[in-house]
Specification:
By secondary structure, the protein is of the alpha/beta class. It is about 25% helix and about 30% strand. It contains four helices and nine strands; from the N terminus they run βαβαβββαββββα. Bound molecules: inosinic acid and magnesium ion (MG).
Length: about 180
């Protein structure tokens, strides 16, 4: 295990099992309908790529980028960096995919934005759900795991841009996020 990780919460085998379950739910929901998976960068790229490879029905893939965290562990101001082209949104069924639903601000804002841009339907799918931190009324339509109120990293989730490449999810040792971030 990485030296900065305090506790491993979701090992690789558990992640695979959880994604298999959610991929089946998504497949059943969209069977017979066109849809586009929108991966919210950067955090969801690993989850989205594992998820879509377990969905055996036709789908398209798009990306959008949104950042709400600087280098700390609390939510900052939300910044939408880019969205898909108009022809990828108007009249489409979209499934927004994110790494974690925390305060809910990111998903809520993106859902509104996509509806305003003419999407037919917008659903959400998250790898982790941290309900204890929710700041507004938003629930994901599909979720893999519910996580306690801990700052977690790995499997796409970062702290100050690092740890996304860990193949499992773990909580960070408090001394890592209590010390000033180098270069921040
Ligand atoms: P929300 O807008 O507060 O729901 O925040 C969602 C975003 O915050 C996620 O896409 C993550 O990038 C980030 N985030 C929230 N909690 C964590 C965490 O425990 N570890 C890493 N990133 C997190
Ligand atoms: Mg992030």
């Amino acid at each position: 295990m990485h030296q900065d990780i305090e506790r491993k919460l979701y090992p690789e085998a558990m992640i695979v099992e959880g994604i298999d379950r959610v991929a089946k739910e998504v497949t059943a929901y969209y069977k017979g309908r066109d849809f586009t998976v929108i991966s919210i960068l950067k955090g969801s790229c690993i989850f989205a790529s594992d998820l879509i490879r377990r969905i055996p029905i036709p789908l398209e893939l798009g990306f959008c980028a949104c950042s709400s965290y600087g280098s700390g562990t609390t939510s900052g101001e939300l910044k939408v960096n880019f969205l898909p082209e108009e022809n990828e949104v108007v009249g489409r069924n979209l499934l927004l995919v994110d790494d974690i639903l925390d305060t809910g601000k990111t998903m809520n804002a993106l859902k509104k934005e996509f509806i305003a841009r003419g999407a037919k339907e917008v659903k959400s799918c998250v790898f982790l759900d941290k309900p204890a931190r929710r700041a507004l009324d938003f629930e994901a339509d599909f979720k893999v795991f519910e996580v306690e109120d801990l700052f977690v990293v790995g499997y796409g989730l970062d702290y100050a841009g690092r740890y996304r490449n860990l193949p499992y999810v773990g909580s960070l040792k408090p001394e890592i996020y209590q010390q000033p971030v180098q270069g921040a």
